[in-house]
Input
Amino acid sequence: MCGFSGIFNVNTGSLSDIVARMNAAILHRGPDDGGIWEDQEVGLALGHRRLSIVDLSAAGHQPMQSSVGRFIIVFNGEIYNHAELRQQLETEGLAPQQGWRGHSDTEVLLAGLAGWGIEKTLQACVGMFAFALWDKHERKLTLARDRMGEKPLYYGWQDDTLLLGSELKAIKGFAGFRGEVDRNALTLLLRHNCIPAPYSIYKGIGKLEPGHYVTLPLSDIPLAKVTPPQAYWRLNDAVKKGIANPFSGTPTEATDLLEAQLLASVGQQMLADVPLGAFLSGGVDSSTIVALMQAQSMQPVRTFTIGFDEGGYDEAVHAKAVAKHLGTQHTELYVSPQDALAVIPQLPSMYCEPFSDSSQIPTFLVSQLARQQLKVVLSGDGGDELFGGYNRYLSAKNVWSKMQSLPPVARKAAAGLLRSVSPSTWDSLFQVSKPLLPKRLHLSTPGEKAHKLANVLTLADGHQFYLQLNSHWSDPASVVIGGEEPKTIFTDSGRWPETDSFEHWMMAMDAQTYMSDDIMVKLDRAAMAASIEGRVPMLDHRVVELAWRMPLELKIRNGQGKWLLREVLYRHVPKALIERPKQGFGIPLGAWLRGPLREWAESLLNEARLHQEGYFHPASIRKMWQEHLEGRGNWQPHLWTILMFQAWLEEQA
Output
């Protein structure tokens, strides 16, 4: 796990000092080593910061030059099958003629790119990665990103200067960077909690989309500026192919197949030259990963979790029970509200563009905890999108299909009734009624879910239903001054996946939006801020492709999601330790905004300040803030998005 930066400008002169500043901004991504490569004649310089994981020697130093001197690479991530690729290169006579310098995956990747070319190498790699490759002969710079978007890559032009980096803070290290806020991207932030690829918060700077590469001919700058990225792998293709060729065996055979692939993927991702462990929440996904790690380890796997004393937000007790059963070396830390609140001032720098998934706070805290003992952690992310775990997939059948049969007037009346009761009152009512309700209705934050249901009751079709569930501000362009919401996969039907059911459609959409733009961003920045590498075995593309061969009835059964994944887990962990209502990795942020965060939030949401800064129409924001303070609505998700932008904006000053 590392970070890199780069600049191209034929008129700047020496670029080493510029790249040194860009590198310094991402020191946290690679505190172990750093380097700069420059070609003054071309006007190109590349920088790298290294977190040493595989081959800790100088043989893994970057920027790395190919054996014949033609190619230079800066690389962030891990190629998990690098040993197999090394052997294949040797068999084909494409290994370095003078022999391998070391055993790093970077050297293997570089040899593959030199011998096989860009697309064949990308197709062969199993891993998470982003890289920049300079071809001296062709004078072309190629940027590439992994299939599921685990590793970030920003790039863009400012006049005749090309800037690139693993994080925006690296690009901001260029003294001439203008940093103009893209108000259209800001509307996307308000809707989605994050700014989806290919956009960024800055005009002229974008994100390379997952599964894509772009080759920029720097000998022809006008052409390089308009060169479109190319896809070497598309999730929609994997979805279509999987559904067209479904697994036809028995449920037991399906469980065997999934367990074997997950064991292989987890086993590959356990390879490192430094200590590693795993995040463990006690839920299905993380428990599965830890169980499969422990099944392949001669020593107790080191596992980590954090807990909160607030009711409804603490999963540490469940993680402890799973850890005890599996025999892991478990570390838990109960954090106080003060511990969590202390993270908030760091968030604008940590995420370098506004990002408002509030689970960013516990993710950083557990990363910080794990970093005290090791450098690599495996995470259970991906299970929900691949195997049908989110409540909205169940709602598609249990709620949306039933809603459609009701007359519009009845739906409107029901929505009004749900909204007439505050979220806190709904929470109290559910708590009193809990002993009388079936287990599947033992919801966390029931009041928030009741108001979400009210929002979707009056929608016209399933696609609007899905967009509403993925929206915080439903009309963000009305809030952002001068902002128009740009087209994304959510609104461009030509980019929608072809599936056999609405549930599968939502899962495929989530995997290429919420997963890559929110969850992977959250994990990467939080882990990297603690200088620790996060790995995600379920996003191995072989697991992804296998998941899409599995019929929906093996994912969602009897009103419960992730059936097939649970079957794998129950071979290792008793069902009684896992079966409970789904609970997100969250914090009681809504209550904190009324309490210890109130003064901080009031300062950022001050009406005069909002007018002066000129990004938002204040009226709706101030109305929400007042209603939230009075308990008449839980507007925490909406307000947190505004607050994260405001805090980020304040840091730019």
